[in-house]
Amino acid sequence: MSRAVAGPLMREDGRGIPRSLPLLAALVEAEAHSAAAAAAARPTDSGLVRAFRRRCCCCADAAESDLVRSFRGGAAPKVPIRTFLERIHQLTRIDGNCFVLAGIYLTRFIPSADAMEAGILVEPATVHRLVAVAVLLGAKFAGHSPVKWTRVFQDSSEGAIRAGEMADLEGCFLRAIDFRLFVDRAGYKAAGRRRRPGWRGCCRVSGPGWRSCCPSSNVLSEVENLLSSVVH
């Protein structure tokens, strides 16, 4: 990454935390809260509808995707996202570039065909695992040694994300984004300009509390807009 791109995002605060860390934390945490509010606003199902849903869910369990099992199969960490990321940073001392890359990888994953088919969004049940694997891939791509990294996520999540989960999470994430990890200068600029009409294809049921398009598109695009502003 060039100095022009990296400068504003790589600046560190008094504790040595790069600006990109709280930015990523704020964006994904806001998105998770938005998803939770949307779910809470849905009308309550009648007893007949609930019974039908349970029957459908039971039938679908056998065909449950790897993505659903990986990102929703374990306990959801109770640690706030910013605290989670700060713990990771404290244990690994990775630079701010890793958090920038993590944000970009999330914008590639959420609208991917695999994620949309599985219904994986940035929400309380998935946010920590999504962020964990995105940061792991960003760190690897940035050249940081992955030695003992799986324990880092277990310790940072207070045991909710087990060390043994990370290999499956990484594999599912990489396949969903078609192993597209490289981001060049032109890619940063294009990301800021792109409106991603394809994201509007992941529409949900309309109504009170629901957005007209995939919730993650609005919040995570702020990462790309900021990146666009620092390369001009």
From TrEMBL:
Gene3D superfamilies: Cyclin-like
SUPFAM superfamilies tied to this protein: Cyclin-like
Species: Urochloa decumbens
Keywords in alphabetical order: Cell cycle, Cell division
Record flagged with keyword Cell cycle: yes
One Pfam family it belongs to: Cyclin
Cited InterPro entries: Cyclin-like_sf, Cyclin_PHO80-like
Name of the protein described by the UniProt record: Cyclin N-terminal domain-containing protein
Keyword Cell division carried by entry: yes
Protein family membership: Belongs to the cyclin family. Cyclin U/P subfamily.
Lineage: Eukaryota, Viridiplantae, Streptophyta, Embryophyta, Tracheophyta
One GO process term, biological-process aspect: cell division
Origin: domain of life: Eukaryota
